[in-house]
């Protein structure tokens, strides 16, 4: 078996996936028709042609616009099920999935509708395919901390159904410190915390996410390679990074895959995991990320074993649950 075959075939976890970012153009048009909505694109090909991003913001503008087709519980169920079906084909057995409630509640979709639909999809995948999932409720950092506080208030009646909290959306100009009080409240609820940091933002944002927000994991973190002291700390404290290689290339964080900091992060002994971020928009699911990484770096079998073991080690499942897969 080649190292690539090993990586593709072994059971794995995905820890950085925005469910709204798994909305394929085909499903977007299907949901638009079902809900009587007109997308501002003539057809699937025209929408796909718009997937030419110059940075994170240019992607987010399209991502939020497409999310408008998600209206009903059934829509969120179908979205979740489509992702999990595709994830299963990549031998993903466990997924920790982010959702952005504010993208939907701002349009008048009740929090309860979003959550119930996503849970229905996850439940079908558990029953039919034995897949395990956790939901991470993510706050949009381009909004004010007060707005996010109100969203947290809205989530409180459902708090037992939310596993963890995260922070995403436009990073530059919205440092983690802006959400110090919000994350203190989330921590007091006893939930694990994650935050996007060091995707487009500087290493200082990663330090803030650790020191101020007290996150257990950093989403992306790829700019950590610019700061030796940060690398040393991430290694010492065994802070996992959920790296999304195709995303970083598509959003021009790196000019091409060969420039990616992944080998440097691994060389420092960091707990790196591979993930697909927004697979519908960035050229593929986890399997496609693995192929692209292997083409660029030709990793050996031991490196792939480490990466796949890291996906469980960095997850929020218990040792006992993990033992089933490892
Ligand atoms: N929301 C969805 N994808 C994201 C990304 N890559 N960075 C920040 N926010 C996001
Ligand atoms: Zn992300």
TrEMBL record:
Ligand binding (substrate): 278
Reaction equation(s) it catalyzes: adenine + H2O + H(+) = hypoxanthine + NH4(+)
Entries under Pfam families matching the protein: A_deaminase
Record site: Important for catalytic activity: 220
The EC number(s) this enzyme carries: 3.5.4.2
GO molecular function, one term: hydrolase activity
CDD domains: ADA
Keyword terms: Hydrolase, Metal-binding, Nucleotide metabolism, Zinc
EC primary class: hydrolase
Chain residues that bind Zn(2+): 16, 18, 196, 277
InterPro entries: A_deaminase_dom (IPR001365), ADE (IPR028892), Ado/ade_deaminase (IPR006330), Metal_Hydrolase (IPR032466)
Domain Adenosine deaminase: 11-326
Requisite cofactors: Zn(2+)
Active site: 199 (proton donor)
HAMAP family (UniProt xref): Adenine_deaminase
Family named by the database record: Belongs to the metallo-dependent hydrolases superfamily. Adenosine and AMP deaminases family. Adenine deaminase type 2 subfamily.
Protein task: Catalyzes the hydrolytic deamination of adenine to hypoxanthine. Plays an important role in the purine salvage pathway and in nitrogen catabolism.
PANTHER family associated with the record: ADENINE DEAMINASE
Protein name: Adenine deaminase
């Amino acid at each position: 078996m080649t190292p690539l075959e090993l990586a593709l075939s072994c059971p794995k976890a995905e820890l950085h996936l925005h469910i709204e970012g798994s909305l394929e153009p085909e499903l977007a048009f299907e949901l638009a028709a079902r809900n009587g909505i007109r997308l501002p694109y003539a057809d699937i090909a025209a929408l796909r042609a718009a997937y030419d991003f110059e940075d994170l913001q240019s992607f987010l503008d399209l991502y939020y616009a497409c999310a408008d087709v998600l209206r009903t519980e059934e829509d969120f169920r179908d979205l979740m099920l489509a992702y999990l079906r595709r994830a299963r084909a990549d031998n993903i057995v466990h997924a920790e999935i982010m959702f952005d409630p504010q993208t939907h509640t701002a349009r008048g979709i009740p929090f309860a509708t979003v959550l119930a639909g996503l849970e229905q999809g996850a439940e079908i995948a558990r029953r039919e395919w034995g897949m395990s999932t956790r939901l991470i409720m993510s706050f949009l950092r381009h909004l004010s901390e007060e707005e996010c506080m109100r969203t947290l208030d809205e989530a409180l009646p459902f708090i037992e159904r939310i596993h963890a909290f995260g922070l995403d959306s436009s990073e530059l100009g919205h440092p983690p410190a802006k959400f110090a009080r919000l994350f203190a409240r989330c921590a007091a609820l006893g939930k694990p915390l994650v935050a996007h940091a060091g995707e487009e933002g500087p290493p200082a944002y990663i330090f803030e996410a650790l020191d101020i927000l007290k996150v257990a994991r950093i989403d992306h973190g790829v700019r950590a390679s610019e700061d030796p002291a940060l690398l040393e700390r991430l290694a010492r404290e065994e802070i996992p990074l959920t790296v999304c290689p195709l995303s970083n290339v598509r959003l021009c964080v790196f000019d091409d895959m060969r420039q990616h900091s992944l080998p440097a992060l691994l060389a420092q002994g960091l707990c790196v995991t591979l993930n697909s971020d927004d697979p519908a928009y960035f050229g593929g699911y986890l399997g496609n990320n693995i192929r692209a990484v292997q083409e660029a770096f030709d990793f050996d079998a031991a490196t792939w074993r480490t990466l796949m073991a890291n996906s469980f080690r960095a997850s929020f499942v218990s040792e006992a649950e993990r033992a089933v897969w490892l």
